[in-house]
Write a structure and sequence with these properties.
The complex is a heterodimer of chains A (259) and B (177). Chain A has 259 residues and is of the alpha+beta class. Chain A has helices at 3-14, 20-32, 34-50, 61-108, 117-134, 147-154, 242-257, and strands at 142-143, 173-182, 185-194, 197-205, 212-219, 222-229, 232-238. Chain A folds into two domains: 3-54, no CATH class; 121-257, 2-Layer Sandwich (Phosphorylase Kinase, domain 1). Chain B is elongated and about 60 Å long. Classes of the chains: A alpha+beta (259), B mainly alpha (177).
Chain lengths: 259, 177
């Protein structure tokens, strides 16, 4: 091995990065060549002068605390930021949709009978129902079959307390809840599951006291039932057949009066 | 629940390397406050990208992020270090050092070694810090610095020669003054 080659390999040798054959060649050469041997010695002296704990900057204790703290904060805010982002996305989507509906209504009004408020709301609810099932993770903000988890979750998020009941024993399992923006206001939404069907139940305070009976309508293949009572408006929507959805509506009404 | 798990596994895999992160950041930024800021920022970035961590060596993974954060920091602060031209070929130190200076280097104290290493251009300093202080393999250094293995090898060799020269000069200065 030449001196030049050895000089090139000396660092790899020093760092233990050479294979055995190369290492032996380097050793052999240094055995014969005092210049390369000296060069190796001076490099290892340099290395040992770097092996000095005083040259290592150890992280101060308060940095460890600071990092831990900011990680925890970050982990927390990542969750709420995401929820926040989704919320505004859907508020935006709802507003855009309403604007669109508004324009369509305005353009078509002279030619067709102006749709009633309920009709618009029904459309809005159909879209929201479809969206809630299309977007992964949008179906629920709080995922729980426990009414004592879902109900308190709404606390402080809306200015009313929706009735939350699980009807698991009647095979309408409470699946979770979320907030939604409908009918120009924030409404609470409960999600129930029957077999593979999801029911979105929208609840918000009624402007008039007193109750109105159930109204069943169909839109785009979905069944919708709405009624009001106990000072609240209720809209239930699902792809479930109308008989079972009516059964569900009755359970909700009875659950309410039994509350 | 999942978030909690993410935080817990992140803390387990990455938090133990805080010293390594701080040491590298300090050697690259040259001061306590900046090193602390860079480390904190690096950890937040690392946490954000933890989804991409595949359970390999947590230290290498973290140090690559620390290094990037340091470079961003240096750019932001218009550090003159980055404009250092890669002119090794021009000012290459005599490669065969027939030096009796080895003995002098041996007598160099911590302060001198620190100063010599600090004054080294950053591209040599970083590979030396990773090799000598973290005792990382050429392969790990290559992946952290995003350089080919051969470049890592030659930068280490050049860095050491420059360091040796700087120390020798300092020692001579000491002797004269």
């Amino acid at each position: 091995m030449s001196c030049q080659k050895t000089q090139e390999l000396i660092h790899g040798y020093l760092d233990g990065e050479l294979d055995l054959a190369r290492s032996l060649e380097v050793e052999q050469h240094m055995h014969e060549c005092e210049i390369c041997a000296r060069s190796y010695r001076s490099q290892s002296t340099l290395r040992s002068s770097l092996k000095n704990d005083l040259l290592y900057y150890t992280a101060p204790e308060q940095l460890k605390k600071r990092v831990r703290f900011s990680l925890r904060k970050e982990a927390k805010s990542a969750v709420s930021r995401r929820a926040f982002g989704w919320r505004w996305l859907f508020v935006g989507a709802s507003l855009t949709f309403m604007l669109l509906v508004g324009v369509v209504v305005w353009r078509l009004a002279p030619r067709f009978i102006r749709p009633s408020g309920d009709e618009l709301l029904a459309q809005e609810i159909v879209s929201d129902h479809v969206r809630s099932l299309q977007m992964p993770g949008h179906l629920t903000d709080v995922l729980s079959s426990d009414q004592h988890t879902v109900k308190p979750w709404f606390d402080g998020k809306v200015d009313f307390a929706p009735p939350v009941k699980d009807f698991g024993s009647q095979d309408f399992r409470l699946y979770g809840g979320r907030l939604e923006y409908l009918n120009n206001r924030t409404v609470t939404t409960l999600i129930y599951q029957r077999r593979l069907h999801y029911i979105n139940l929208y609840i918000w305070p009624a402007e008039q006291t007193g109750s109105t009976g159930e109204v069943t309508i169909q839109r785009q293949g979905y069944n919708l039932i709405h009624w009001s009572g106990s000072g609240m408006n209720f809209w239930a929507i699902s792809d479930l057949n109308s008989v079972e959805l009516q059964e569900f509506a009755r359970l909700v009404q009875e659950g309410q009066s039994g509350d | 629940m999942q978030k909690q798990n993410k935080l817990a596994s992140f803390e387990e895999a990455v938090l133990p390397h805080l010293d390594a992160a701080y040491n590298l950041a300090h050697w690259l930024t040259h001061n306590d406050t900046d090193a602390e800021d860079v480390v904190q920022e690096s950890y937040l970035r690392a946490f954000k990208f933890f989804g991409g961590f595949r359970g390999e060596d947590g230290r290498s993974w973290l140090l690559a992020i620390v290094r990037n954060t340091c470079y961003t920091w240096m750019q932001r602060n218009r550090s003159p270090q980055l404009s250092f031209p890669l002119d090794d070929e021009l000012h290459e130190v005599e490669s065969t050092d027939l030096n009796p200076e080895a003995l002098l280097v041996q007598r160099a104290n911590t302060l001198m070694v620190r100063r010599a290493l600090e004054e080294l251009p950053v591209e040599f300093r970083e590979v030396l810090v990773l090799r000598e202080f973290e005792e990382m393999s050429y392969r790990d250094i290559a992946s952290i610095t995003d350089l080919p293995l051969g470049t890592v090898m030659s930068r280490l060799a050049r860095g050491r020669k420059r360091l040796q020269l700087a120390l020798t000069k300092q020692m001579h200065g000491e002797v004269i003054s």
